[in-house]
TrEMBL record:
Keywords: Monooxygenase, Oxidoreductase. This is Monooxygenase. Gene3D superfamilies: Acyl-CoA dehydrogenase/oxidase, N-terminal domain, Butyryl-CoA Dehydrogenase, subunit A, domain 2, Butyryl-CoA Dehydrogenase, subunit A, domain 3. SUPFAM superfamilies: Acyl-CoA dehydrogenase C-terminal domain-like, Acyl-CoA dehydrogenase NM domain-like. PANTHER family: ACYL-COA DEHYDROGENASE, ISOVALERYL-COA DEHYDROGENASE, MITOCHONDRIAL-RELATED. Residues 243-381 form the Acyl-CoA dehydrogenase C-terminal domain. One of its GO terms (molecular function) is monooxygenase activity. Residues 30-113 form the Acyl-CoA dehydrogenase/oxidase N-terminal domain. It comes from Saccharopolyspora taberi.
Length: 407
């Protein structure tokens, strides 16, 4: 099977945070059945996104009055993690969707927030994003009551499976970045079929061409009379998405350890030449030592990721006017610590599991390489060394990170 199918009855929606996390576990179980086949086929994940829609996970953060679950970010992070245990690519897509669904709250006006949240929640719409501020390759021109986007973005996660796309570009003649939410299916947006990386293969993160996409100034996020009104809260977009990264890294690492322990219990043969021979590989000292080390490190990383989630939730759900630069900075440091710890731990797990599953576990049909490929691909998003340096400056000098597009 190379596409995801399900027969679950999801007509009744959960009413608690744990209920939604359990629902995400059900989705992950469906995805895990054919995750390797779908990864290799590298087909656009229409069925997988429909699975997210059918399960109700897409509107997890949406307002209750519009049919959403009205849940908080701590639940959204846990849900992202659970889905990633079954399929890292789909976990990434869902986590990015949550960020873009919240993007209006981060930067938009009250009126824009209300309109966007009603639109995506009532229609069960899925978000993608053509946002890569490192490359100023999408130019915006001011044409009176409208702004017009033209150019190209090298990455557009969610592209073909999205209903709405968040565009980001630079207003011509200025350094002003403007975000706008537009329909994904229109003549002016052409998604290219050029995402063929070794991991996270079903995230549809290829390039996109933007030609004469017109947006009313009234829909330019956070702009009033063509001027942006900045708040410390606006700069929470980077810590929020970086913790999305950490959570789907954690989910992938959990999935890797679960797959490996299952293989070792059921299929790994004991080594007959060690001098203290066992009847089962699961009883060998070096196997127990390795799994104990990896599990302990994973639990430690999970605790730090959860601690960061608790901290960021407090500011994400606070009054936007009340968030201070100091609050934002302390949260950013904690997120940086969580991200670099799970990145390192996840890659270690995805590498060392082969030492305790055996040579036969390296067969393509087993698929244990999927976890390393997924983690290795996305942990290159921005250098982890800079996250360690942010934490180091805080620990040594008491400095909090200055907001940039990556801190």
């Amino acid at each position: 099977m190379t596409r995801t199918e399900h027969t679950a009855d999801w007509t009744t929606r959960p009413t608690t945070a744990q209920g939604w996390i359990d629902r995400a576990g059900e989705v992950a179980a469906v995805l895990a059945v054919d995750v390797l086949e779908r990864d290799r086929a590298n087909r656009t994940p229409h069925a997988e996104v429909q699975l997210l829609k059918d399960s109700g996970l897409v509107t997890l953060l949406g307002p209750v009055e519009h049919g959403g679950a009205g849940q908080t970010w701590s639940t959204a992070y846990r849900v992202t993690r659970e889905v990633a245990r079954g399929d890292g690519s789909i976990g990434q897509l869902l986590g990015y969707h949550y960020l873009w669904a919240w993007a209006a709250r981060l930067v938009a006006t009250d009126e824009q927030i209300a309109a966007v949240e009603e639109l995506y929640t009532t229609n069960n719409f899925f978000f993608g994003g053509a946002v890569n501020p490192r490359d100023e390759d999408l130019v915006i021109t001011d044409e009176g009551d409208e702004i017009v986007y033209n150019g190209r973005k090298a990455f557009s996660t969610g592209s073909k499976v999205s209903d709405l796309t968040v565009l980001e570009g630079v207003l011509q003649g200025t350094n002003d970045h403007i975000f706008a939410i537009v329909p994904s299916k229109q003549d002016g947006i052409v998604f290219n079929d050029d995402w063929d990386n070794i991991g996270q293969r079903l995230t549809e993160s290829g390039s996109v061409e933007i030609t004469d996409v017109r947006v009313p100034w009234a829909s330019a996020a956070g702009y009033v009379d063509k001027k942006f009104r900045p708040l410390a809260y606006n700069t929470l977009n980077v810590p929020t998405i970086q913790l999305v990264f950490a959570n789907f890294y954690l989910g992938i690492a959990q999935g890797a350890l679960e797959a490996a322990t299952s293989y070792t219990r059921d299929r790994t043969r004991p080594w007959p030449y060690g001098g203290d021979n066992k009847e089962r590989a699961a009883d060998e000292f070096h196997v127990l030592d390795t799994y104990g080390d990896l599990q302990s490190k994973l639990w430690a990383a999970e605790a730090l990721v959860d601690k960061a989630g608790t901290a960021i939730e407090e500011v994400l759900h606070a009054d936007r006017e009340s968030v201070t630069p100091e609050q934002r900075g302390r949260v950013a440091v904690l997120v940086a610590a969580a991200k670099q710890r799970i990145a390192d731990t996840g890659l270690e797990i995805a590498t060392r599991i082969f030492e305790v599953t055996g040579a036969r576990a390296s067969a393509s049909k087993v698929g244990l390489d999927l976890y390393w490929r997924n983690l290795r691909t996305h942990t290159l998003h921005d250098p982890v060394a800079y996250k360690r340096a942010e934490v180091g400056r805080y620990a040594l000098l008491g400095e909090i990170p200055e907001p940039t597009w990556y801190t």
